[in-house]
Amino acid sequence: MKGDGEIDTIDGGYVTAWHDASGNGRDATQSSALKQPQLMDATPLPGASANVPWLQFQPGTGLGWTDGTELDVDLTFLVGADYTIFAVISRFGDTSPSGNYFLGTGSVTQSLNYGALHLGYYDDTDFRFSEFGNDIDASVPSNLPGQWQLALVTGEFSKTGGHTLYLGGNLVGSNPDQTAMQSALQGAVGRGFLATAGSTQYQGGIGEILIFTEALSSTDRAAVENYLRTKWRLP
């Protein structure tokens, strides 16, 4: 899914569908007007320099972020598979920064272990890549309220090598757990797993998400990161 890809919007630029550019038909959609993120095409993704459209996601204003924005997406193809996920994101600083995830699956109504993918910010100074029970946490700079913080994210899983996390192309954490994802229900862009209603929703911008159903070689991973770095003119 790309900010400059095929995106369906209604009045005000609110997104009803972010189409899957791979041709596999795994579009991210949202029929509820209250939950639709907004397409931003007048200014660059904060922190980047390229004038490429991006999506802005907001948590709700109520306690527990119950009315936040998100797009539903089928991520069940990750079950049992090796995979590599790339993303260009920019989080927006808030006084309640915990549980700020941009991609996820699963709910507490299901068995969470190896079924609750979540990629994003565990809290203000920790970035997390996990399927629940196999966390990788990496320290990140604090993000002050009202400020934006850009990130190039790569999360990779291999049934022979386990999990690895890269930020800005640099290895920042790994977990040797080689258990593949067991379920991937309730997939979403703009939130992590569902603990309570809206509790892990994302506040910030998403420019691009690329998912490969293989653990890429270091050469291929670096090539994709360089493509994203160049396209979005990342610092």
Key features?
235 residues; mainly beta; seven-stranded antiparallel beta sheet; six-stranded antiparallel beta sheet
Helical run tally? 1
State the end-to-end distance.
Answer: 22 Å
Based on Cα principal axes, name the global outline.
Answer: globular
Structural class call reads mainly beta
Major sheet details: 7 strands, antiparallel
Percent in helix: under 10%
Low-confidence stretches: none
Task: Compose a concise summary of this entry.
It contains 1 helix and 16 strands. The chain is mostly beta strands and 235 residues long.
How does this structure look, described?
The protein has 235 residues and is mostly beta strands. 6% of the residues lie in helices and 36% in strands. It is built from 1 helix and 16 strands. Strands 4-5-16-7-12-13-14 form a 7-stranded antiparallel β-sheet, covered by helices on one side. A 6-stranded antiparallel β-sheet has the order 6-15-8-9-10-11, with no helix packed on it. Strands 1-2-3 form a 3-stranded antiparallel β-sheet, with no helix packed on it. The longest helix is centred in the last third of the chain and has 14 residues, at 218-231. The protein is globular and about 45 Å long. The model has no long low-confidence stretch (mean pLDDT 90).
